[in-house]
Amino acid sequence: MPLLIRPAGPRDLEPIARFNAALAQETEGVRLDPERLSRGVLALLKDPQKGFYLLAEEEGEIVGQVMVTFEWSDWRDGVFYWIQSVYVRPDRRRQGVFRALYRRVEAMARERPGVCGLRLYVDRDNARAQQTYRSLGMAGANYDVMEVDFVINRHESYPTEEKS
Length: 164
Fold this sequence. Notes:
The protein is of the alpha+beta class and 164 residues long. The protein has helices at residues 13-28, 34-46, 97-111, 127-135; strands at 4-7, 51-58, 61-73, 78-88, 115-120. The protein has a five-stranded mixed β-sheet.
């Protein structure tokens, strides 16, 4: 059965949160706070101004996802689609699931007036992912990501909120 690429809705909260938790554990070795994660996913699902998720579904099972958020570029007078929260179930990796998701995001971006390009960030040590992105036509940028994160301590699991 072919892959169905579809937009996510609130009913997809649980599988998206599960995939995001697995992604954080696999890529950063951290355990996400489930309540905070669910709130974050639901906030995006309910507010299209924040972004959107696309899901890859096969025989009624979700096998992959991407999240897209928006970044305004004053230099280009347009919006970049930032591809984030990329996750494909381990048993479906290297089988074209991400490629199908990426191609749908790319097509949507090209069709929407005012979108000036696609961006994503990738771990410097993840050569396999970098090769995948290059094979889709992406190229390295002349930027490093810098941050101050008020929620995540990279040396511990994500903190949980204090209960009063």
